[in-house]
Structure formats: C-alpha cells, structure tokens
Amino acid sequence: MKRIIVLVLLVGIAGVAGIVRSYTKAGGSIREWPHAIKGQSTGAEVRDEIRKTVELSPGARVDVSGINGAVTIETSDTRTAEIHIERTAESQEALNRRKIVINHTADSLSIKGEKEGSVLGRIFGSNPKEKVTLRLPRQIALNTSGVNGAVKVGEIDGPVDISGVNGRVDVAEASGSANFSGINGQVSFALKGLGKAGIEISGINGNIELRLSESVNADLEASGMNGVVTSELANVIVDKTSRGNYTARIGSGGAPISASGINGNIRLKGLGKDLKLASAQ
Q: What pLDDT score was predicted for residue 160?
C-alpha cells in the first residue's frame, strides 16, 4: 500500500512539473500568472465622464445604487436633472470592469453601477472609482443604496431612503418619511415635516444627529443602543427605560421615530436658520 501511495505522489509531481516546463517554454513564467489575470497597467490613470440632462416631473422617484465612490446631490426649484459622473481606474481594462446604467422617464430616474467582465478579473483586478454629482429638482423621492463612499444631499421636498452606505451621510433637509439603515458612518439629518410613516433608523455604526423643526410632533423609541439619546429641544424629556433602551415625546407626540441597533449616540436638535445656511455651503 505504501508503494502505491508513493507512486501516486510521484506521478502527480511529475505532472505539475510538466505543466510548468511547457508554460515556461511558451515564454511564460510563474511570476507572470497574476499579471495575465489582472491585466497590465499603463501606469497612468484612465478617466471617463458621463454627462446627461433629463426632465423630471414633481415628485419623481430618484434611485442611486451600486456606486463605488462618493455621491453628492444638490437641489433647486427646477424640473431639470443634471447628471455628472466621473470614473477613474488604473487602466482601460480596469475601467471596463464596471459600467453605469442610467434609465429615466418623466416620473423616475435610475443611476446604477454594475459589474462587467470575467469573474477572475473582478476578483483579482482593481475596480474603478466613481464620483457622482447630481443637480436635481427639490420635489423628489430619493432612494440611495449600496454606496461605498460619503453621501451628501441638499434640501428635498419629499421622503428619503438611504441604506447600505460605507461613509458619512448628510441630508440638509427633507419632509415626509425617512429610512436610514446599514450605514457605516455618522448620520446627520434635518426634517421640516414628518408624515404618518415617521422615521426608521437601524444598523448604524456612528453617531446620529437629528434636527427637527418646531412643527414636528413625534414619539421616539430607541432600542439595542450602544450609546445614549440626548436632546437640545425645549420641553423634550428623554427617558431611559432600561439599558440601551430610550423613549422621548417630541411636541405633542404622534408619528413614530424608531431606532435600533445603533453603535453610537443620538442627539436631537432644533432646525434653525444657522443650520440651513451651514448645510447649503
């Protein structure tokens, strides 16, 4: 039995040696294998830009997802959406590993990053980076997900849904309802009006600053927190019901503000003119 095992091992070693010799004779070497998969870099950064302008109806839904880089959204009283996306990579081959797909109608705009190329290229090769800058109408419903970078949003007259972000999130102002989930970074959010759906915050690894106007009436309930809830709002008392669990009544109470799985602190502040000016700069 031992002789058989030794014979099998010798045959296997000889086979591997034969593959290496044949590859070397063909002009290759062991060191070149990763380059064959990864692709040669020219040493200079390759850039690509996307510029597009579309018209949107008031209240249109805007989806931004799968972006490998920062997203900045500016808003104004207009119906025109201006899209500017800058893509950079170490080579054209690397740049081709991802693409940006833009679809739009009068009622919707979708900007989505998608992977391209072979599986080995996506695993071993570097991915391009993207910088997305949007100038959008103020009256929209915003949905942002899967962003590997900071997200900064101007004033929005509509709901906001932001999830799966690896970076800081800053929303100058919104109204209606809001959802923040799966964010690895600090969250700063201003709300001038709150709908019946309220606000849901979950899975945040960072501090949260929630700025509220005087007209907002809500009931806050926070659970499973690794941090504390504090308030700078007048006539708001924060109660600690148990370890990691807090409640607070804002104004006369009403719409729910739910927070869970927060690794950080929650601070309630007023929505003043100075904060608006600071966020607009």
A: 96
Torsion over CA: 225, 230, 236, 239 (sign):
positive
In eight-state DSSP terms, residue 118 is -
**Sequence-ordered strand ranges (E) for the chain:** 46-55, 60-67, 71-76, 80-89, 98-104, 108-115, 129-137, 140-147, 151-155, 160-165, 169-183, 187-204, 208-212, 218-223, 229-231, 238-242, 245-250, 255-262, 266-270
Higher-confidence position of 196 and 263 = 263
At 137, the amino acid letter reads P
On the question of pLDDT at 40 being above 90, the answer is no
Return d(Cα 238, Cα 259) in angstroms, integer.
14
Quickly tell me which residue has 């600071």 as its tokens.
278
CA separation for the pair 254, 56 (Å, rounded): 33
Residues 81 and 155: their CA atoms lie apart, in Å, by: 15
For the segment 46-65, the average pLDDT, to the nearest whole number, is 96
User: Which residue in 184, 166, 65 sits closest to 115, CA to CA?
Assistant: 65
Higher pLDDT, 271 or 186: 186
Burial 83-96 (b: 16+ CB within 10 A, else e): bebebbbbbebbbb
Q: Rounded CA gap, 49 and 86, in Å?
A: 5
